[in-house]
Records
---
Amino acid sequence: MNQTYASSEPSRAEVDRLAGAVVIEFGSPMCGHCRAAQPLLASAFADHPRVRHVKVADGRGRPLGRSFQVKLWPTLVFLHAGSEVARLVRPGDADTIRQALAQIDAADA
């Protein structure tokens, strides 16, 4: 699991070309909901070490978040081979995150 937000966000074209299982986490280091979700994410990702985790600092005028129509933080977009498989907005428990991770991780097995 990635602990820090990327210094620059990838383009949508780059995201669409990503191979394998990837989770893009849209949020902000200042967001209370985002900080509260971190222990849940750490717990869930512990069972899925092969899944790539990309943290994107989202905000006004940030094109990647707009391309995914992100409205609330954190928003987790679960991708397999660049295609969205699942999405969670403000997840409240690690089991829900684990279930979504299992969907994309199993596709790579």
---
Amino acid sequence: MITTFLTLTFIFLIFLWIVSWINYYNKLDNRLGSSIWRWSYDYPVLGKRDISFLDDKKFVILRRKKNKIITYMYLIVFLGFLVLMSFVSQILLIIQN
């Protein structure tokens, strides 16, 4: 149970670190927006013209880095959910006995 709690704490610290990176990328360019949960689109959207790699190379590279970090964030959230469920089940087993 202690190792699960330490793992959960470690995952939470990684989550905070990833969120700080997302906020850092958001502040580099205003076109990225301020959301930490939403990917920036890198594909054609009806009614909107996307900025291609040829239009603004630095922005597209920055957007792809941010999208990759957001994917890592979702992976950490999912992993944290699994570890949290393990932790709760261990607590419930202790309460039951």
---
Amino acid sequence: MEINLENFNKKKNIFSILDNIHNLPSIPIVLTEVNRMLADANISASDLGKIISKDQGLTTKILKIANSPLYGIPRRVSTIDFAIVILGFNHIKNIVIALSMIEAFKGIDGKRFSQKQYWQHSLLTGIISKRLADDLGYHFSGEAFTAGLLHDMGIPLIFNFFKDEYFKILDLLETSSTPVEVIEMEILGATHENIGKYLIDRWNLPTSLSAVVETHHSPMKYEEFHELASVVHLADFMLNKMQIGSFIWDKNFKFERKVIDTLKLSNEKYLEEIYNKYAKIIQEQAETTIL
């Protein structure tokens, strides 16, 4: 395969710039504390709940997520301790990781970048990914939520630190049918997937999250994580097909057909049945403000 040296050099330059940016979002204290506590085999739901409850905003968001329609929990979750018991330590950790990332990017908003729209799309992708993983019988539903929520993490980084390139990418997206990854490589020398992976690696988050963020448009890239990446890819595709919100970055979304075989969906007809099954509940979820 021929290497585009111009794009290669651009890419090297982009990451050199990121390496020297001192105000990149840093890992929040509450996430550090939660990670430390979960390393203790004797930790109780009450102990973990006390740490999370120090951040009232985080507590409220966790409870809203636990009570969201797509989670399908039959009884109302009204306390953080109960949420921990119902969802489990690992899934709570995944939610804290995801919400911590949201908090870290809280100040990023502006002309032609709607934080509300971005996070609605991200949150719905996370919740649908979890629901898909559960319904398809995968054990990684907690990771699917986090990976789905963080899949487009590179976009606010591009907006915040490479504004000229961001606007050029957006202009081309609005006027052409070229896939976003091709446009990003041409303008920036890196994709939002590459840049999202960069931040997740910088935070020392799990390799599975890094891999899925890097491959959510090309889920077959890594054999070890292709099922998890396929779930997120499918969730992203479903939202794009439903046209919930107007998330321009997915305008020319190309569905990877190998996902059907990877997730054992039988055929495209079965895929359509899943889509129809989720459509109403996703619409209901989209109308519920969580973040």
---
Amino acid sequence: MDEYIERLKDGSLKLYALEKELPPEEAVRVRRAFVEGETGTALPKVGSFTIDIDRVVKRNIENMIGAVQVPLGVAGPIRVKGEYADGSYYLPLATTEGALVASVNRGCSLVTRAGGADVRVMRDGMTRAPVFAARDVPHARDVAAWVESHVAEIREVAESTTKHGEFREAVTYVAGTSVFVRLEFDTKDAMGMNMVTIAGQKVGELIERETGARLVATSGNMCTDKKPAAINLVRGRGKTVVAGVRLTDAMVADLLKTDAETLVEVNYRKNLVGSARAASFGFNAHAANVVAATFIACGQDPAHVVEGSTAITTVDRVDGGVYVSVTLPSLPVGTVGGGTGIDTQHECLAMLGVAGGGDPPGTHAKAFAEIVAAGVLAGELSLLGALAAQHLARAHREHGRG
């Protein structure tokens, strides 16, 4: 080890090149020892992990020195009545926020007692939007017109890059001499960002060649990936999922310790009016909490919590109770690729019965999206109830959190 550390110190060996000379486990150990020496910090816990790193260092991370462990809890069971997920599930939630799992667990009990969450995937399409530079405004219009009249050619080029993805549509947007082409794909059980980026590059080259517009970037931010954006809230990105449950007045009183009218008012004034006044893209209580905890547990890209948090929670007064629903317009999830193959994350997906590819393709990712939406619904119910009953601060005190 000393030889490699000396080479790292004198610059004759780069940190990223260790795997070229050593097996992955040894490369990680040497790199960690080097960083310990450089920073004067011992990292024994970072260096203690159970995941198999052979795959991880090739697909998931560079310059690996170990792993950070996040506590994993479970909430449930929750009854889900979806088109792809139909049954009772224990939700794996990885978080460091005390009281979160307890809160979701309470919501799961309420949803299950009410007979389960109705869940449907309304739309499914991952996007990538290359941006082109046109010569002038007339040329920009010509480029958009070409795209609109050559969808078959675009589909052929796009689908030539993937065995699994299916091209859905191309929508153009013009701003001055900038032309954005928002491409949408059905990426089956993959979350699909790599798939649509590769396809987007080929489509971009086709449009550049045929129209004379210059391809500036494969992503022009009209996608929109990992940033708050109204286009995702309106048109959707990834899975658009809606979950709802009908609660009787007795259930609201028994488990949430409040009444239907108060629940409706809290949701209206907090989630709807409060969010509107703040110009928020998320009209919900804490959807990001459940999305983030599930994403971390199940190997999703945590940065996509940005899109996943743009949820809308509604509470309708109905005869004898309320109907509570959550709408997640932009939920980018997958059960193959990315972090889903890491051992611990794969186990969490297996808990839900959605690990790997589905049969037919795409059914596992859709089932997972339905389960996530049901979990968000449970979290929203619980927090709304706590707020309506003035129990939020007390719950955090009881769990030792300020």
